[in-house]
Amino acid sequence: PAEINYDFAAPSVNVGLASLMVDGEAIDAKGEIALSDLDGQYVVSQGDMTQVSSVMAASRMLITAAANEPGGSGTFAMNLDYADITGSSNGSLMAMADPAAISKALAAGMSTASTLGHGAASFALDFMDGSDTFNLDGTADSGAIKISMNADALSYGVSNTGLDIKFSGSEIPLPEVAFAVGEIGTSFLMPVAPSDTPGDFGLGFTLRDLTVSDMIWGMVDAGRQLPHDPATLVIDLSGKANWLIDIFDPENAEKMDMEMPAELHALDINAMQLSIAGAELTGNGAFTFNMKDLSTFDGMPAPTGAIDLKLVGGNGLIDKLIAMGLLPEEQAMGARMMLGLFARPGDGPDTLTSKIEVDGATGAVSANGQRLQ
């Protein structure tokens, strides 16, 4: 009785929409969620807290939905098809009647961690309302979601690989918009409880190997003067911060808008990369913040630290944009003057580097040793 194992398996599991009523009116709609080759296990252990852990897998998950607008011409259809579904979770749970008690439950030991992943996927969406239409089709190689929460932190991450998407519609000024992404994902980490001691936080975003169709490139670069290489944007931040209020208490919602709800103590720029049209900007750095000094930088905690930046191919990109007529010569001159102020030549051709330093004690800001403020 203190630890019960549940094993389950089913060739198929289907959940279907039998009927839909909105404001007493029947809606012509249908929908279904179907799982194939479902197999899994979960374990429930009793103690001071209920411990639950689980694993599951399914060879396929199909989600379909369709609806017709009552008395109108509007229609909607959706189809999501995922292969190789996997999932796992574990946690320490306790009964909670009041959502505002989450903080107390976490402090008492409540925790949860879950992952959900899939293999090859396809999706489609069609919408029509009179002359308004929209259509989207796409595929993906894989995807995953990870969520965890305990007394120390809340973390979340979602990612997809091998995305290939096409869409069109009456409001889109092209016959079709198509793009592909090698990898896209976002993640964050933050403390969950009010504390005088800073905890870890993080924020990440990845958009790697983005390519767009020739039809889109043709709108801005019909003569192919720019490199049509895949574009990439990567940001990876971490640091130390602490909440001053209980973020799970609804009564604190107004305080988050009217007063400082948290303190920032450190920020690390672990990675920064932007690659597009033959140019690439990279950087990294670290800063600490003095929460007792809010006057030196006009209400912002005084930062101390530095960031190193490197730009490759920047001047070449400016030259090509001028030749294409996309960038006026006077604006390009202003941009080059700014680069000359903040940067210096690097080791390679068309390479600029810059080290931006901030001294929170004096309020000094310098670029490559030259004081700017």
Could you walk me through the main structural features you see in this protein, from its secondary elements to its overall organization?
Helices cover 12% and strands 60% of the residues. By secondary structure, the protein is mainly β. The chain has a 6-stranded antiparallel β-barrel. It has a two-stranded antiparallel sheet with strand order 2-3. Strand 18 and strand 19 (351-359) form a beta hairpin. The longest helix has 14 residues, at 329-342. The N and C termini lie far apart (70 Å).
Describe, in short, the structure shown.
The chain is mainly β. It has five helices and 21 strands. It has helices at 102-107, 214-220, 253-258, 314-323, 329-342; strands spanning 3-16, 21-22, 25-26, 28-45, 50-68, 75-93, 111-118, 121-129, 132-140, 142-149, 153-169, 177-191, 199-212, 231-243, 262-276, 279-290, 302-312, 344-345, 351-359, 364-367, 370-371.
Q: State the helicity in percent bands.
A: 10-25%
Q: What series of H and E elements makes up the topology?
A: EEEEEEHEEEEEEEHEHEEEHHEEEE
Unreliable segments (pLDDT under 50, ≥5 consecutive)? Answer: none
- Counting DSSP H or I runs of 4 or more residues, the number of helices is 5
Estimate the global geometry from the Cα principal axes: globular
- Ends distance: 70 Å
**SS content category:** mainly beta
* Tally of strands: 21
What profile does the largest beta sheet have?
A: 6 strands, antiparallel, barrel
Q: What fraction of the residues are assigned to beta strands by DSSP?
A: over 45%
**Mean residue pLDDT:** 91
| Rg computed from alpha carbons, rounded to a whole number of angstroms | 27 Å
Which quaternary structure do these chains form? single chain
How are strands sequenced across the largest beta sheet? 6-7-10-11-9-8
